[in-house]
Amino acid sequence: MFKRFNSKEDFKGTTPIKSSIQRGIKSKLVETFPKLELVIDELIPKKSQLTQIKCEDRIFLYALNGEVILFQHFDGPVVPSLRLIHKCPDAFPQVRVDRGAIKFVLSGANVMIPGLTSAGGNLPEDIGKDEYVIIMAEGKGAPAAIGLTKMTSKEMIETNKGIGIENVHHLGDNLWKTILD
After folding, report:
1. Over the stretch 65-116, which tens digit does the pLDDT of each residue have?
2. What is the pTM of this model?
3. For the chain, which has fewer Cβ within 10 Å, the N-terminal or C-terminal residue?
4. Does the 7-87 domain belong in CATH 3.10.400.20?
5. HSE-CB of 89 using CA atoms within 13 angstroms
6. In what residue span(s) does the PUA domain sit (predicted)?
7. Domain ranges of the chain
């Protein structure tokens, strides 16, 4: 999603978010990721001011204190950025790819199912289709990417080939490099 994103060149305007809309965003995040309920007020404090940044290709970024912590494509769900995920990685569903897949994930490639089902990979059984998951790398402690599942974990295990997760945002992509003044 952020391969052609040129950060500040693609910005069309910024708007402070009303507190009511900010509460709605927080509740949608907790609804999507229930484990966030315990830490959501630490990640996005009640008295803080979120800023919405409108970008090309109908992408909306949400920044807090100059740091992009959420993004949204058109009318899709609000998705946490890796900067937010690194603050509380255990609050999100996680999968792990084997060592052979790490360089491909970090270059923006989609996650192939064999990288999840091999000895170094880990694919929990409760992952559904069209869910956002955190992609961990074998032997590494920090999340490497966030992706959208293309099928359930059961279907991935049964087929054991093809694309399992669409890579949406990864370390080193243009969203990760975006620094706001």
Report:
1. 889 999 998 888 999 999 999 999 999 999 999 999 999 999 999 999 999 9
2. 0.89
3. C
4. yes
5. 17
6. 93-172
7. 7-87, 90-170
